[in-house]
Amino acid sequence: MSQQHETHNRRLKLLRAAMVDAGFYGWIIGREDMYQGEEVPAGDERLAFLSGFTGSAGFAVVLADRAALFSDGRYSLQMAAQTDSAIWQCFTIPDTTFEDWLKTATLPEGAVIGVDGRLITVSLFRRVERSVLAAGANLVCHGENLLDPLWPDKPAMPPAATWQMPVELAGKAVADKIDDLAAQMSAKDCAAVLLTRVDVVNWLVNMRGADLPCTPVNLCFAFYHKDEGLCLFGERARLAPVIGADISVAPLSELPERLCRLGERRLMIEPDSLPRILFDQIAASGVKTLETDCPLAPTKACKTPAELDGFRAAHRRDGAAMVEFLCWLDKAVAASPATYNETEIVDRLLVFRQQQDGFLAPSFETIAGSGPNGAIVHYRAVAGADRRLAADDLLLLDSGAHYRDGTTDITRTIAIGNPPVGAVAAYSHVLRSHIHLAAAKFPVGTNGQQLDAIARAPLWSAQLDFAHGTGHGVGHVLSVHEGPASISKRGKVALEVGMVMSNEPGYYQTGDWGIRTENLLVVAASPAGQFLQFETLTLCPFDRRLIDKSLLSSTEIDWIDAYHRTVYTQLHPALSSAAKAWLASACRPL
């Protein structure tokens, strides 16, 4: 047993002792903080602290006699690799659900399963409660987290770094956004709304921050009352730069007091993001509520012209950084690929991005998966435990950045020497899928499920597929993964003009290599009327060494050549002499 596994197993024993003391037969550990974002502060990484699993999505259930870890298809391999198989059962949803697993456990009569009420939403609590009740147990919200006392050296929050997004970049003033919110509330007969999506709150007040390493937000909620105005629930010192005459700041403990002032008027809440512990406070106040989706999320997803101009400018600078990096990489690995390991690749790419104007931070932790690590969809290289590059290998590089004016997310698969057997054919089919989505024209009202099938069709024709979604929404200097729309088998929301989406089909050969090609797209109106199409934002060539022209149609070849002409035209002026020469070769017609 490794020392790391011993540490996590010791923590599991301590948790079980705490469960006994608190009267719980089971305890649920999510990967969320109170704000329910994809990224959480280091001090809220309780799932990793307990189990060793560091994926961005998942949860664990610890019973007195067994422990299970659940995540989605992106992390099937990673869960097993990072945990002790003698202790943890790892399951991929939807193949095996929490309810399926719980039915296999023999729970004692009157068993109680606990969960931290701050870290579970109202909607999720309701779903989990149904499963727990079906297994003959009860689910109880606890006001404290049983893991926190076991973590004395929990990391503190970083220093505050709040800044105001200029109206010229946001495209809409705060007062106008609040007016739009008030109109939506009036239409639904609500006097107040509790906004519990952090990216929405930051967007509403044109605010950004650095509470998280890769998501430039300040962690806070907002309460808007049509008579009393907007209040941010957070720390005054951290939010001081955005406090104005029309915005106040208060601690979250003031929520009950503000609820009391509502009287008989209704409060709008979103069960999908509202922590259960706050819902209990609202219920205790007797306030009437309207449960609905966040009223601002769809508006935020449809970018203003100013935001889209920022995206385009950011992608030009990011494309220049990528080309400078790829030029360096080709020369570096040609001489001796084994000189470099995955984390060194990540660090070197970051340096190129940091040289660009307006760079803020990576938009997520870079995925640099070489060889078999590329088949782990959301692999993260850890210094000292990562892999060195090898000749005749593939490197899957998924990265992105936040700039002052826009956000990027790009994946390129790169041949290190001669591509391995089967990789060129698989890459060519993945690229065909990428092109089919990028070139799609579709009627207004088309949703992500329908577009997902369009994207997968070329892969399916070759009897290939991938377990993750084809595309996600992207926020404007906010979360790199943004709702409500997605291009996936679960994407039921229609795409609208101004939405920025990713286009990232892939194929993963377990134990050998992984392939993904990702650009960002913006939904635009088609000249045909009542139809929509995509504009590609990302500017970076595809690796010609991995393209088999014989597998592509003439239309697909024309698309690649046209894209590469655009990349060359847009990026050439901003590059060094060496990178210009590299780009000219990379973008020559197929």
CATH architecture of the largest domain: Alpha-Beta Complex
Unreliable sequence segments: none
Strand content: 15-25%
CATH topology-level fold name of the largest domain: Creatine Amidinohydrolase
* Shape verdict: globular
Mean pLDDT: 94
What structural class do the secondary elements suggest? alpha+beta
User: How many helical elements?
Assistant: 18
The helical percent reads 25-40%
CATH class annotation of the largest domain: Alpha Beta
Over all CA atoms, what is the radius of gyration?
25 Å
How would you characterize the largest beta sheet? 6 strands, mixed
Overall number of domains: 3
Sheet with most strands: strand arrangement: 4-3-2-1-5-6
Amino-to-carboxy terminus distance: 52 Å
Strand tally? 28
CATH superfamily of the largest domain, by name, is: Creatinase/methionine aminopeptidase superfamily
Q: Your description of this structure?
A:
The N and C termini lie far apart (52 Å). The protein is an alpha+beta fold and 590 residues long. The radius of gyration is 25 Å and the shape is globular. It folds into three domains: 3-150, Creatine Amidinohydrolase, Chain A, domain 1; 163-297, Creatine Amidinohydrolase, Chain A, domain 1, CATH 3.40.350.10; 302-581, Creatinase/methionine aminopeptidase superfamily (Creatine Amidinohydrolase), CATH 3.90.230.10. Helix 13 crosses helix 14, helix 13 crosses helix 18 and helix 15 (423-438) packs antiparallel against helix 16. Strands 4-3-2-1-5-6 form a six-stranded mixed β-sheet, with helices on both faces. A six-stranded mixed β-sheet has the order 12-11-10-8-13-14, covered by helices on one side. The protein has a four-stranded antiparallel β-sheet with strand order 21-28-27-24. Helices cover 35% and strands 21% of the residues. Strand 13, helix 11 (276-285) and strand 14 (289-291) form a beta-alpha-beta unit.
